[in-house]
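**Reference record**
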Amino acid sequence: MRTHKDHKEKAPREVSCFVLTVSDTRTSDTDRSGSLIRELLEGAGHRVTGSDIVPDDAAQIRTGVRVAVKRLDTEVVLVTGGTGISRRDRTVDTIRKMIERELDGFGELFRMLSYRDIGASAMLSRAVAGAIGEKMIFVLPGSPDAVKLALNELILPELGHMVRELTKSG
């Protein structure tokens, strides 16, 4: 009987990732969360194929995600920003409509781990993950602390395994 450890052993060690920041105010010089995602991915042996910043506008978010997902050199898209409940936070609502298979456990676990650190405020995050075709997409808050938590505790330990499961045939 195969276990999750067997699956992880056959998973790729290097995954190619694109980083998309959603913000009306951040620039390449001030995008701490996007920079942190790139740093953590590369530090774990993964490859960053590119990055971009788009405003918190549904059409521009859709375009940014479509461009990233269509890249042949990209297996995973990590999005940061716009996961709260304010009127300007459109990221989750926009991307959730694009996701074909949602990974419910990601958001649930992220909020559980966040609760440990920030208490009941964790329920305000709408972090989500799923698949668009054969590409994984993670939608993370814009906070560097939240990015670090999501990558270190959830994404990096399973990134290769998720890509393998998503792209295997049969």
Observations:
- The longest helix spans residues 144-167.
- The domain at 14-164 is CATH 3.40.980.10 (Molybdenum Cofactor Biosythetic Enzyme; Chain A).
- Residues 107 and 128 are 5 Å apart (CA to CA).
